[in-house]
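Q: For a teaching session next week I want to show students how multiple molecules come together into a single three-dimensional assembly. I've collected the sequence lines for a complex. Could you give me the predicted structure tokens for the whole thing so I can convert them for display?
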Amino acid sequence: MVLFISACQPDKLSQELHQRQLFTFGTLVDISILSNDPQQARQAIDELSTEFDRLHALWHPWNDGALAQANRQFSSPVPITTSPSIISLIQQSQYLSRQSNGLFNPAIGKLIKLWQFDQLDNEAFQFHLPEADAIQSLLQQNPSMEDIIISHSSSSGEQIHSNNPSVALDFGAFAKGVAIENMIHQLKKRHIDNALINAGGDLKVLGSKNGTPWRIGIKNPEYAKNPNAKPVLAAINLRNEESLFTSGDYERFFEVEGQHYHHIIDPRSGYPARGTRSVTILTNDAALADAASTALFIAGPEQWSDIARKMGIDHVMLIAADKHIYLSPAMAERIEFLTAVKPVIIK
Amino acid sequence: MKSTLTFAKTSLNAADIIILFLACALTAWIYITFWFGNHTSGSAETLVLQVAQQPPEEYSLQDDRIIDINGPIGHSLIEIKQGKARFIHSACRNQFCVFHGWLTTPGDTTACLPNRISITLKGNLSEYDALAGGQ
Amino acid sequence: MKQLHFKTNHDDHLIALLAALAVTIHIIESAFPSPLPGIKPGLANVITLFAFIQYGWKTALQVSLLRVVISSLLLGTFLSPTFLLSLSGALLSLLALVLTQLPFRRHPQHQPGAIGYAIIAAISHMSGQFLVAWYFFIPHPGLFKLLPIFITFAVLLGIVSGIITQFLVKSITQNLQLSDK
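A: Of course. Below is the structure for the complete assembly, covering every listed component.
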């Protein structure tokens, strides 16, 4: 009887785990698929790899792809045709921008470029602070998602143009989420029901690992600065189709004269958002999770709860710059802390 | 009932003794499987090293050594010692990979993204399926 | 083998008596705190065991079911998770007892004694509860870390309740005349 129980535990549905790491989308993407057909698993992962690379190029703000071309065109109000996926990104972003009171604002691409964060992958690059005047001037022009108009022409289909020449689209805070949603959808179409896609710490899961829920460790922001701290702060078991996205001030940043400048720019000040160390979001839609983690990071310890409510996010963990941990009540139910912390639960 | 054993006013026959013996054996087995089994199969045996898009290579964690990889931005040095592994040097700016320190349990992973190198410890049971948070 | 429908009043009274005893013990037991949820001295099982050894599995089944249902009604745990755990443990342990007895049908004199049966009953009772707990309430792999402790207790308590049952059987057969197996 007891032997029966122990046999139950590992072998319940027993599909094989196929795992691969890809360097793509500017980060390390870890894909795990459960399948009894190694061929199917390999083909699925190959397809995801190609698709990630394609989307990365297509949605890059400053290369030669579709988005980059659109960005160059926005300086004039002439409508142009562009890829349907970009139209979709614009539409989703407009909605999310409204829901976040403009804190999620991909239209500030020029501001982000001013901060040179697109050069983070360039090892040799010397970072310097942007001129305060340049920042102010961009802020005053107030680039926003509302400035982009999608129009329908009978001859050319859907077109876009911008009323505001200071607009440039940088979907860095959103593209990963959208991409992951697409990938998960592809896996489902291939009848893969149990998988985990982890793109540099932002992830979404399908099903479970042979009956056991996917168990995720949440990194401790302290560990990035202090190797003596515990590497994992908390753990959470994810359910089918849940996404877990984190924005942190320790991920992409540069340092100048001992000051730390991270890549999440507050559209209101033009400078990296202050007051928050990291935000972790749990929700189903990966695109929403991506946008929300940025918006709530910017909202900070005072406003996150209101913005979360507006965006329809129930599960939030916010670690403030002063190291206090804030949780929404729903998140408090799901998360398991591994260290002795006293989080504050805010409704 | 035929009594084969009588002590302290209780009697045990052959079947009783067999059952008692099996129960003890079962209990011992359960301890081993669920307590100590977890620890031993939770110890890492191999290091999985992946460079760029090439197929991953595996190295035994039992053999101490230093691995020198030449990636897109330069050299990264990975040390295997006493069943653990770490980056001791890399050509990247942020040195996240080096600061990560020793990888000790299965599932532990770190990477030098600019140099396109990732290392992961492989074993039977690891605590987490993935780590959320910054890269 | 006994008929399922007892015609004699004597046997009905017997079952009622045994069930009442079992319920009483169960309720007294539940007043005491247990070191871990699910770890109980299991003294009420002595009654079920006694019924099984003396009167066969059908009597034991009735006593057992009566005990689980009535206790839970009295304690207010009817149809609660506790009830499910209790029921699954009781059913599984009875099943195990029956299965253990099967090979000895031709040679009942070699079948296990009270202690042997008690150990079987205790282990399967604990397993039944553990299975239900894992499947319906805590599907967490960490639950299995507790299994060794539970099983140890089950074996020990099994031995204890076996000894007690053996005493009971001896004193009853010495003192009373009852319908035979």
